[in-house]
Amino acid sequence: MDKHLRRGWSIRTKLILFLMAVTVLPSSFAIAITYFHTTRSLNEQVVTGNQEVIENGKQDITTYLEDFSYIQTTLYRYTPLMNVLRDGVSDDLVSNQEEINRILIYLFNTRAEIEQMHLYIHEGKDSYTNYHSALSGRGTYENVYEHPYYNKFSRSNPNNNTMIEPPHEIYSYNNLSMIPNSQKKNVLSFHNIIRDVPYSDPLAFLSVDINLSQIESIAERLYTQGAEDFYLMNEEGRIVYSSESELIGKPNRQEWYKRLKQAPEKAQSMEWKDDNFSGVIIYDEFSNSLNGWHIVKRIPYDLLYQGARETALMNILIGLGSLVIVVLATMVISFKFTEPIKVLIANMKKVEKGVFQADFDTLGNDEFGMLGRHFKMMIATINDLIQREYKLEIENKSAQLKVLQSQINPHFLYNALQSIGTLALKHKAVPVYSLLTSLSKIMRYSMNMKDDIVPLSDEALHVKSYLQLQKQRFGDRFEYEILIQPEVESIQIPKMILQPIVENSFKHGFDQTEGPAFIKLEAGMQENGRVRITIKDNGTGISKADARRLQEDFGRSSKYGRDGDSIGLRNIYDRLKIYYQNDAAMEIEGAENGGFTVTFDIPSAISKEDSPS
User: Fold this and answer.
1) Which residue of 276, 397, 439, 592 is surrounded by the most CB atoms within 10 Å?
2) Can you list the pairs that 252-260 forms with residues at least 24 positions away whose Cβ atoms lie under 8 Å?
3) DSSP code per residue over 514-536
4) Are 209 and 188 in contact (CB under 8 A)?
5) How far is it, in rounded angstroms, from Cα 540 to Cα 543?
6) Helix (H) or strand (E) holding 230
7) pTM of the shown model
8) CA-to-CA dists, residue 602 to 216, 523, 573, 579, angstroms
9) From CA 38, how far away is CA 307, in angstroms rounded?
């Protein structure tokens, strides 16, 4: 009977697990605390350090862009050109065009990143461009205010002399520049209005297109390429520069940017997490001429906490090394500690078998040694009792034992079936042994009155044993299939709700047919977390109308199986309602061409409050 008893953990196992727990748990707790404090400290350090980086970058970008904003001031200091702008080019065409060409060449050569310049003079509506040092001829710009930024000057504050057009593909002003398609690139444009000082009357428009090389050079010093993200947005939210080149010139409509613009004025960082980014966003807002612009740097947690993870990994490796040492030491100690216990257990098993002799001399001088000596003394006492009293007692009780032995009980029946099966194996009658085994399992399962709730796997095994017996009866005419998903094998269900349905298939579905018979049992978890169990046969079946009538009869006060049996469909339906408190469904289906299907839809667990006591 020992082999049927569930054994608990041994002292050796408990000792190993205990020593491992007292080693692993404190170490794990220490690693977790260290990781938490390290990440928080790194977060604060990184935010503080990058705020300084962003502040310096903001100053560098401000200085660079304001230099181009002030390029028009060069013209105010050049009197000959200012006279040309006031009087127009036609007054002295040759001389005036030389002055214009001279200033356009001079301004173009002041900065290497300038791609194109355009000068429009109101007096005479004359227009000139300089693209890659190629000066255009004189052109007339009749509809100059069709240019959106020149038009804005006519409606803007007189003190506003410069407007910055966000990155766009370079275009030809007034169709004067010949720009090959292969050389078209993104440029940032500075549109300036030149006024007649000290008056505010407009004299000319000067536009300067620059490439983004210098902005890119400044930005690359502010973030780690491939790991961090960088954004520079103007007051309208258009991206002037980004680490993602495909975003340059486009409006920033991302949620984090909307949240950033709504943040308190003094805030310079925030944490953000969505499907595309998870980390810290550090930002700053420009002022003065670039008021409303934002500079942003996004640092992902993967990079932010890289040092903390490396430290945690090192601690884990050290902890694993310590754990290996502890396990080895524990194994040695536990084996040495538990060896006397194993010797005692082995001798106790001999006593259980009726061998009252100890096969050890001593177990040492400690508590185990004392236990061993008392054990040997106990064996000697038992032997004495057997000689003097136990044999007499056995003789007095022999009559009662014979009566008890004559009673056939389930345990005797199990052992008898097992003996018959063993005899079948000796005579090489394996099918007989298999059938006896299946029958023994069915009887053991059915006669066990202690458990009303069983795992689905046990109920399926009971059905399988029953089907194996029927397989012997029908031979090749019958096949079956049982498909139980692993995730539902351990769920608890009421006992004996599947086998009666399978049994009905043989009693009513296959009794009038001579063709091949088939039964399929399926169980699996649905997307909504409930369990669906289906039993389907290909027997004579019932019509759809009869199936609908049976389904309706479940709600009436009658026991209705396929033949009115007390253990029928209605009986099972009622038990499901009791166990699951009306949270279970049972559906039956019939077909005109044969076949019968029963489907259960039940929760994945039976609560203690719902199950009958």
Assistant:
1) 439
2) 256/281, 256/298, 257/231, 257/233, 257/294, 257/296, 260/294, 260/296
3) -S-EEEEEEEEE-TTS-EEEEEE
4) yes
5) 10
6) strand 229-233
7) 0.50
8) 63, 11, 12, 10
9) 9
User: With contact defined as beta carbons under 8 Å apart, do 548 and 587 qualify?
Assistant: no
Q: Map residue 232 onto helix, strand or coil.
A: strand
In the three-class reduction of DSSP (H, G, I as helix; E, B as strand; rest coil), residue 478 is classed as strand
pLDDT digits (tens, 9 = 90+) for 463-512: 998 888 888 888 888 899 999 999 999 999 988 889 888 888 888 777 66
Q: What is the pLDDT of residues 48-57, one digit of tens each?
A: 888 899 999 9
* Dihedral of the alpha carbons of 510, 513, 515, 521, in degrees to the nearest 10: -20
pLDDT greater at residue 192 or residue 433: 192
List pLDDT tens digits, range 158-186: 788 899 999 999 999 999 999 999 999 99
The tokens for 143 are 């509809």
Q: Work out the number of other CB atoms within 10 angstroms of the CB of residue 102.
A: 13
| Averaged pLDDT for residues 424-434 | 67
Question: Nearest-5° angle of CA 530, CA 584, CA 463?
Answer: 80
User: How much of the chain is in helix, strand and coil states, percent to nearest 5?
Assistant: 50, 20, 30
The Cα 116–Cα 175 span in angstroms is 13
Task: Please answer whether residues 60 and 288 qualify as being in contact, where contact means their C-beta atoms are separated by less than 8 angstroms.
Answer: no
Each as own residue / partner, the long-range contacts of residues 545-553 (CB below 8 Å, 24 or more positions apart, any chain) are 546/590, 547/588, 547/589, 547/590, 550/588, 551/587, 551/588
**Contacts of 230 by beta carbon, 8 Å cutoff, 6+ apart:** 219, 222, 223, 241, 242, 243, 296, 297, 298
**Residue 170 DSSP class:** -
